[in-house]
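Sample intake sheet
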Amino acid sequence: MSSEKKLAIKGAIWTIASYGSSQLIRFASNLILTRLLLPELFGLVGLAYVFITGINLFSDIGLGPSIVQNKRGDDPQFLNTAWTMQVIRSLFIWICLLIITKPISDFYEDPRLLWLIPIIGINSLVGGFNSTATSSLNRQMAVKKIVIFELGIQVVSTTVMIVWACFDRSIWAIIAGGFTGTLTELVWSHFLIRGKSNRLAWDQEAAKEIFSYGKWIFLSTALFFLCSQADRLILGKIFTLTMLGIYGIAFTLGDMPRQVIVAISSRVIFPSISMMADLPRSELRAKILNNRKLILIPLAIGLAIFVIFGDQLILILYRKEYIAASWMMPILALGIWHTTLHNMMGSCLLAVGKSQYAAMGNLVTFVNLCITIPLGYHFKGNLGAVIAVALGDLPTYAVTNYGLWREGLTCFWQDIQLTALFVGVLATLLWCRVNLLGWGLPINKISPIDLIPINQLFQ
């Protein structure tokens, strides 16, 4: 077995272990916090984070991927130039947040956003001084160190959040937890690789290479923000803050299977394919398809189980105020399948230096969401809007497959086979749920109000 394959397998194992641990922490803290804090607070913080995340993504020039992919990724001068660019970017982000706060507060008619966005935005400012060590470890596929680092930050942040909420059931519990996590990440990141530290520097050639590689990443991440946050941008206006908070809970749980694939794609697939990018495309494609199948078969089975029985988690563990999340989550989880298919192969395109397809896919997905979410809400209320979100990134799947075909890495036939497996398992489990267990459909908690737009309720 080649050293690259050993690293990939080891990285995949650590990533999955990390994912399981992270989601367990996240789920447990979610259960505790939903008993201590009102749904409205989650909706308000979620709305603020939409714009904070947006400014971060709109200013992303691919510093991390550049370190992983570039042949000079271990050169101290290259790393310090990247770090200097990162610091400048963080200052730019916070200034932008100060500028947009007033218009956002006026648009959503909530004065609390006037102080909430700048305060949470301090995390972005502080994070700009993080060490480039995490990207260097990604380049080396040292997944174990990254996993311990990220889990440690999550434990610290979550603990502060829960302890604070026990004494003060306000939005400050969420803010304090986030800031503590950011501060921990800053300090710890500079001790990840002993003997190496970042300093302000500027190498013209390194900056040119970063900008050249990152120009499509910049466009892609800007558009990714629009298509990944379009749901909250639009729903923040048509949902109440309470319903937005409930939707956020459903989305967080329903999105869990995708998160493990995103982690594997960024930590394992992207760096490992970058190492093999010079292989003939036919040989590279064969390696990708073989390893991809080993990941997607168990995922298809696990995701089908999650879609059919996931609503029970919310019905059993959450308070009755969150009951609407029980029908939202299976719909959102169902849409994870096609998202997973294009996420994995999108990393392969990025690894061979073809980042333009991600940008094009995100653009058409954003346009699709802007059209289908309002239409879905108009015709079928909350249900229609959630279905539109679940199907929203189908255009990205189409564009990714076009890019794979152009680059000689097509996997469409494998997608058909794996989708047939997923649908077969899904149908079998649904039959068992309805006929053997007598539980009805996973979306049987939809109420008549969920089918009517809120503006029509008062007509």
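Comment: The radius of gyration is 22 Å. Residues 240-459 form one domain.
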